[in-house]
Amino acid sequence: DAKTTQPTSMDCAEGRAANLPCNHSTISGNEYVYWYRQIHSQGPQYIIHGLKNNETNEMASLIITEDRKSSTLILPHATLRDTAVYYCIVRDLNQAGTALIFGKGTTLSVSS
Amino acid sequence: GAVVSQHPSWVICKSGTSVKIECRSLDFQATTMFWYRQFPKQSLMLMATSNEGSKATYEQGVEKDKFLINHASLTLSTLTVTSAHPEDSSFYICSAWTSGRSGELFFGEGSRLTVL
Questions:
Q1: Which helix (H) or strand (E) holds A48?
Q2: Of residues A61, A37, A62, the one with CA closest to residue A52
Q3: Which residue on chain B is closest to A47 by alpha carbon?
Q4: Whose CA is closest to A32, among A64, A75, A80?
Q5: What pLDDT, in 10s, does the model give residues A46-79?
Q6: Which of B2, B38, B26 is nearest to A38 (CA)?
Q7: Residue of A80, A78, A85, A96 lying closest to A30 (CA atoms)
Q8: Radius of gyration, CA atoms only, chain A
Q9: B114 contacts in chain A (CB < 8 Å)
Q10: How far is residue B70's CA from residue B56's CA, in Å, rounded to a whole number?
């Protein structure tokens, strides 16, 4: 059963911010929000994760709404190399050692 | 950072033969590794959970006798596709959580299997 809902695809111009939304309306208190991306023919790459506070690292920012029912991954200055499928996943850390279950993700196309 | 490495990155084999794919954690120990399969234009599907020193746990619909998993050490898990057929052609990806860190699951580069 899908725990997250993401748009199938999005386009973004090179140099602009890419804002990728994710709905997780049934998220529980112990579940974190994870974002991964997969560039064509490569293994998924970890981007960022968070519980309730906004997070930022060298790759992206994660904005989680106060009710935690949705989040947005922000790539501040998208480049052509950011073209990939982006996966939003919720995971309960009480289930340590279990696998991540991937949905269909959002295909982000960055163009010049 | 932690790295998970797979070998081979691609392999072509004849129908009926067996193929072994290795997954190594290069700078950390992984008591648990996961194997995924991905068909073209589809998402990753979890196949099995590989546990060091014990039997793997397979997801529903995955044939354990066809996809043999061996996790003999804390840094190596192998997936053997036995009697491969063209429908087994896929992208196989392994992953592992880094112990002692909060919440990163690292993935291998993937292994593309083509069965002729």
A1: strand A45-50
A2: A62
A3: B104
A4: A64
A5: 999 999 999 999 999 999 999 999 999 999 999 9
A6: B38
A7: A96
A8: 13
A9: none
A10: 8
